[in-house]
């Protein structure tokens, strides 16, 4: 197979959302199409006959292009892989121009499946994150139009917009009976990929990695670990929650920091389990082999996050704490087709050092710790407060998270005859009052997963 250009890294499509392919992406030349079998010729003839009957006899006139695109999409859908998909002409142009700068967006990583965009993770500090969108939320309408009635390119165009303009989306969420609408204001998505804090009371270093992106992130990460150790850190927590992935090379580089030379990091296998490439740690000067490490993951941790977590887990170099990760560990080829269209086909999968495929499974934590979250009655209570427009005025008059704010919020609940547990109140107010800031130091009293991760490290 001849390739014009091979990029052994993940490519990201920055449309009005920050849409990640979350896999290795290859741009291939158009190859000579394989000769069609006799069965293939038979069913192509049947397809043409069906299209002719639709065009001539179906009760409503249909556009021929729409029928054939539906047939192509149906063929790809039959594979049962949401990442193998048809790319129409407009979307393929967007994909080819993906590196041409930043513009207004909402900051969320998406997969397209079952006629809806499924959120992999909102990116911290962006409008989607501030609005409380969660992994596995489904976007079913954009500005009042059902996603299932739109092409992906049309959906992208609707989500694209100038900074400061608004977008309305209807969301389906597991556990909620009715979809709900969120209204977001597009922002210029400028991401600070990494931040670190020293927690002296626990002699622990904490690094939050938002995405595996940025040309200097590897150097910044290594420098952050060194600075934390110099400050007195005797253990390290790497927070990959809501990190949807990024560059494969960066995930390998970070894993290398904590592994002795010649340790397995990740392998890539193709059809029939044939090994394509295996990555191992190298012999280099800067290593942190004696520093105890815990990695935090959740349902928004995908792809490169899972590669790093899997590598350190299987090499018994880190404890994995949190909840099951997303399970995105496949490689897509983006192949140009005739007339400016394209197709994304899954051709390879990632495997952890122990030989486990990440794809569709994810990384299982060594210690499953669920975060404090609102139950159904508490979610109803918060929805009621939002609908009665009681939250925003409260936040405008209470700018700091403190005991006074907590007491005043409880008074509102009492007047409305609503009940919410103290722990949920504290987490809700803290998240609302930081207003999307990614600069706040982690709070051990509000983050049970982080607190438990620290306690588990020896």
TrEMBL record:
Gene Ontology CC entries for this record: outer membrane-bounded periplasmic space
A Pfam family hit: CtpB_N-like
Entry keyword annotation includes Transmembrane: yes
Keywords associated with the record: Hydrolase, Membrane, Protease, Serine protease, Transmembrane, Transmembrane helix
A biological process from GO: signal transduction
InterPro entries: ClpP/crotonase-like_dom_sf (IPR029045), CtpA/B_N (IPR055210), PDZ (IPR001478), PDZ_6 (IPR041489), PDZ_sf (IPR036034), Peptidase_S41A (IPR004447), Tail-specific_protease (IPR005151)
Domain of life where this protein originates: Bacteria
Transmembrane segments: 12-30
CDD domains attached to this UniProt entry: cpPDZ_CPP-like, Peptidase_S41_CPP
GO terms for MF: endopeptidase activity; serine-type peptidase activity
All copies of domain PDZ, residue ranges: 92-160
PANTHER family from the UniProt entry: CARBOXY-TERMINAL PROCESSING PROTEASE CTPA, TAIL-SPECIFIC PROTEASE
Family under the similarity heading: Belongs to the peptidase S41A family.
Name this polypeptide is given: C-terminal processing periplasmic-protease-3
Gene from which the chain derives: prc
């Amino acid at each position: 197979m001849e390739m014009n250009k091979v990029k052994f890294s993940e490519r990201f499509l920055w449309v009005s959302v920050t849409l990640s392919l979350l896999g290795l992406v290859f741009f291939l030349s158009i190859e000579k199409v394989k000769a069609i079998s006799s069965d293939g010729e038979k069913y192509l003839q049947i397809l043409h006959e069906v299209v002719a009957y639709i065009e001539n006899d179906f009760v409503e006139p249909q556009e021929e292009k729409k029928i054939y695109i539906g047939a192509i999409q149906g063929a790809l859908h039959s594979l049962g892989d949401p990442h193998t998909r048809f790319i129409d002409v407009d979307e393929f142009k967007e994909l080819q121009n993906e590196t041409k700068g930043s513009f207004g967006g909402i900051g969320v990583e998406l997969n397209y499946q079952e006629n809806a965009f499924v959120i992999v993770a909102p990116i911290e500090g962006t409008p989607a994150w501030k609005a409380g969108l969660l992994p596995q939320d489904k976007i079913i309408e954009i500005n009042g139009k059902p996603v299932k009635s739109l092409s992906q390119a049309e959906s992208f165009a609707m989500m694209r917009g100038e900074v400061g303009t608004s977008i309305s989306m209807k969301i389906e969420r597991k556990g909620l009976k009715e979809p709900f609408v969120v209204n977001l204001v597009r922002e210029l998505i400028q991401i600070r990929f990494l931040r670190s804090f020293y927690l002296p009371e626990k002699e622990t270093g904490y690094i939050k990695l938002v995405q595996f992106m940025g040309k200097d992130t590897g150097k910044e990460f290594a420098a952050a670990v060194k600075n934390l150790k110099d400050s007195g850190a005797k253990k390290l927590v790497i927070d990959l929650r809501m990190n949807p992935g990024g560059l494969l090379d960066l995930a390998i580089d970070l894993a290398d920091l904590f592994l002795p030379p010649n340790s397995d990091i990740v392998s890539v296998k193709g059809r029939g389990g044939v090994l394509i490439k295996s990555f191992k740690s190298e012999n280099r000067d800067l290593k942190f082999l004696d520093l105890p490490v815990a990695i935090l993951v959740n349902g928004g941790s995908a792809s490169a996050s899972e590669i790093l977590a899997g590598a350190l887990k299987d090499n018994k170099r880190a404890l994995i704490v949190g909840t099951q990760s997303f399970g995105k560990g496949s490689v897509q080829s983006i192949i140009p087709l005739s007339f400016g269209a394209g197709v994304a086909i899954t051709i390879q999968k990632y495997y952890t050092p122990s030989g486990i495929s990440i794809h569709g499974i994810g990384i299982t934590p060594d210690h499953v710790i669920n975060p404090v979250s609102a139950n159904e009655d508490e979610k109803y209570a918060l929805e009621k407060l939002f609908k009665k427009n009681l939250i925003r005025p409260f936040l405008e008059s209470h700018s700091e998270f403190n005991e006074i704010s907590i007491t005043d919020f409880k008074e509102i609940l009492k007047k409305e005859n609503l009940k919410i547990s103290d722990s949920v109140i504290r987490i809700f107010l803290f998240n609302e009052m930081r207003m999307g800031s990614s600069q706040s130091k982690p709070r051990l009293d509000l983050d049970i997963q982080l607190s438990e991760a620290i306690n588990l490290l020896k």
